[in-house]
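Ops channel
N.P.: pipeline sanity check, posting one input/output pair.
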């Protein structure tokens, strides 16, 4: 049976008037403890009959609404109609539903008229029942419930193709009962928040600011407007994943870091360049994924921190340029796109000409916010089409998602490779973070996250020698006992998402254990900086790299990112201690006169530097260190969500007041 037919059956059953369900009888008796005057008894009984009917109907409708959460309307600022018209009702193909929804508003209006014309005694209206509600209070509740139901029903007409295919309900991104409010005016974020009270912690935070300033000043001096800096050669480089033009990737990636650290002169210089000189005009292929998380993400984040809408305009311009990359049979984008020629392709090394899971699955935060802020729904439509495709796509019984998928055929790559690290990582991250970004209303994202944990737990999460937990890599049928530096972000993700799962204690425990395993890779290194990947094959070599191509360090943030989250959620001082160890090692071994450089082999007796200062050093590594040594009110995790490049986005607000929102849920 299709999902659609299941929903239709549930609708016709749950909306049956005169149901003998316990819920119906419980609600009928809600006001039986009110006192009535005998001479008004007949009229009151009539009203209570209407009231009981409405209660049953509203509860049924509300129950249906609660099963239809939808991110499309969460991001979309346009309000749906309150009451569906006859044509829209017909789209349900259920005359029972249509009749009852069409009838309900007139019944409610009748009760309201009775109240407004003083045909009901004041003491009846004002007296509270055992739950502390007056008749007016309850009537207001039911009014909201009806509007919620009507909004969902109205929205169904906008997905006629889905209805034609009998695939509605939780499997369709139809309009939500909630609409998120577009901010009219954002007050600039107060960056003086977060000042640590402990002097020793403040000293460490000040050191992180000094390191950031050295990296930034070196970029400005030697590589201004180039995408990244070569700190040893003391020159800029632009021919990379961002194309071949001087599009200032480091500038845009650093904007929110400079702002949060209170480096005002540096921020103003960067902002002036963005508004007066920046052009996204590469003549060569660029990464759709990297452009999204660094450029679009960096600009949107700076908007939420400053309130300057020009950052949104710039982000919209860039996202519009990327749209042709999504023109495929599945909606999954190609990895690389040339804005000049229109050519799109995937990496030569990717299995069978496939796109990468982490890249196609890391769009809905930025693209959703763009649609929310600009009323341009193209971006959210693209992102949700991808997510819906992946949600429905056939997977093995283990529940894992493979890392390669073809954008035209939708087939998984032949390698059957899966990981929570490189090639897979941020796909999982964006599921739980989108749920949080939408004020916990996008339960499709939450459900997908919890379902993905099943595959992770079944196949990738292992307890190695010495009781060291790690996340391995699946290669066809074998899970390799190797964990990447990139995978170390997962400790932070599990900590962030733990309380939103059915196994909160388990996943927080695993977050801590993975944090310790990642720290082990730093402790096993002679310079105190971990390698690109490390193994858990024997207890003696746990946390150590094995092959030459596993030993480099490119200024990555993921281990420090997990330290940050674990500090916030556990308040265990060791995470700050580990972070300070890492900061000192980076300052000692990666710092050069012209900035900071990666290391080719962290185990070598004599270190060789790679002469590259990655833009994410400023966007992520130094930002997470700064926040690690700040108090929690500097980017409160109850108010903000980071994208995968550590750009903070403000959690979306409801249109309704807090009280109304509570009633609506």
């Amino acid at each position: 049976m299709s999902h659609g037919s299941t929903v239709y059956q549930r609708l016709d059953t749950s909306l049956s008037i005169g149901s003998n369900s316990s819920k119906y009888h419980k609600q009928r008796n809600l006001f039986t403890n009110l006192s009535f005057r005998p001479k008004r008894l007949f009229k009151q009984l009539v009203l209570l009959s209407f009231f009981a009917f409405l209660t049953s109907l509203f509860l049924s409708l509300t129950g249906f609404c609660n099963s239809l959460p939808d991110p499309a309307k969460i991001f979309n600022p346009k309000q749906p109609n309150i009451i569906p018209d006859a044509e829209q009702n017909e789209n349900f193909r259920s005359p029972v539903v249509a009749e009852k929804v069409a009838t309900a508003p007139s019944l409610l209006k009748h009760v309201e008229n009775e109240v407004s014309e003083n045909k009901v005694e004041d003491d009846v209206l004002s007296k509270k029942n055992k739950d502390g509600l007056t008749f007016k209070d309850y009537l207001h509740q039911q009014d909201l419930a009806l509007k919620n139901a009507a909004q969902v029903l109205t929205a169904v007409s906008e997905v006629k193709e889905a209805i034609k295919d009998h695939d509605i309900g939780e499997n369709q991104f139809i309009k939500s009962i909630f609409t998120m409010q577009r901010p009219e005016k954002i007050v600039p974020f107060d960056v003086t928040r977060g000042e640590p009270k402990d002097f020793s912690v403040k000293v460490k935070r000040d050191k992180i600011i000094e390191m950031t300033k050295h990296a930034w000043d070196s970029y400005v001096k030697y590589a201004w407007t180039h995408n990244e800096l070569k700190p040893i050669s003391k020159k800029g480089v632009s021919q990379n994943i961002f194309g071949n033009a001087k599009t200032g990737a480091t500038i845009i990636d650093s904007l929110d870091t400079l702002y949060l650290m209170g480096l005002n002169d540096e921020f103003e210089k960067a902002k002036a360049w963005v508004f007066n000189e920046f052009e996204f005009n590469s003549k060569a292929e660029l990464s759709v994924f990297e452009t999204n998380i660094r450029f679009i993400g960096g600009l949107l984040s700076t908007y939420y921190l400053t309130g300057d809408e020009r950052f949104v305009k710039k982000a919209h311009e860039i996202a519009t340029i990327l749209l042709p990359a999504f023109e495929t049979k599945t909606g999954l984008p190609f990895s690389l796109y040339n804005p000049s020629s229109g050519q799109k392709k995937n990496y030569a090394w990717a299995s069978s000409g496939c796109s990468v899971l982490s890249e196609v699955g890391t769009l809905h935060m930025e693209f959703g916010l763009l649609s929310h802020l600009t009323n341009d729904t193209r971006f959210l439509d693209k992102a949700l089409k991808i997510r819906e495709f992946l949600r429905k796509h056939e997977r093995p019984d283990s529940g894992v998602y493979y890392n390669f998928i073809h954008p035209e055929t939708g087939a998984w790559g032949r390698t059957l490779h899966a990981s929570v690290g490189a090639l897979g990582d941020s796909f999982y991250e964006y599921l739980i973070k989108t749920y949080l970004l939408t004020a916990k209303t996008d339960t499709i994202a939450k459900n997908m996250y919890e379902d993905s944990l099943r595959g992770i737990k079944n196949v990738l999460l292992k307890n190695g020698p010495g009781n060291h937990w790690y996340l391995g890599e699946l290669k066809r049928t074998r899970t390799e006992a190797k964990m990447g530096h990139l995978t170390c972000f997962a400790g932070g993700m599990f900590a962030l998402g733990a309380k939103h799962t059915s196994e909160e204690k388990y996943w927080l425990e695993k977050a801590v254990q993975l944090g310790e395993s990642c720290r082990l890779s730093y402790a096993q290194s002679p310079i105190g900086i971990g390698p690109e990947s490390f193994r858990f094959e024997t207890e003696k070599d746990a946390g150590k790299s094995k092959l030459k191509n596993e030993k480099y360090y490119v200024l990555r943030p993921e281990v420090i990112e997990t330290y940050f989250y674990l500090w916030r959620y556990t308040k265990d001082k060791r995470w700050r201690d580990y972070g300070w160890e890492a900061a000192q090692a980076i300052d000692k071994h990666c710092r050069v006169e012209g900035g900071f450089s990666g290391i080719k082999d962290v185990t070598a007796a004599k270190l060789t530097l790679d002469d590259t200062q990655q833009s994410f050093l400023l966007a992520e590594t130094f930002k997470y260190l700064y926040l690690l040594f700040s108090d929690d009110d500097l980017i409160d995790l109850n108010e903000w969500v980071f994208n995968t490049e550590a750009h903070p986005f403000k959690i979306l607000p409801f249109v309704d007041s807090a009280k109304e929102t509570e009633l609506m849920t």
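N.P.: looks fine end to end. The mean pLDDT is 81.
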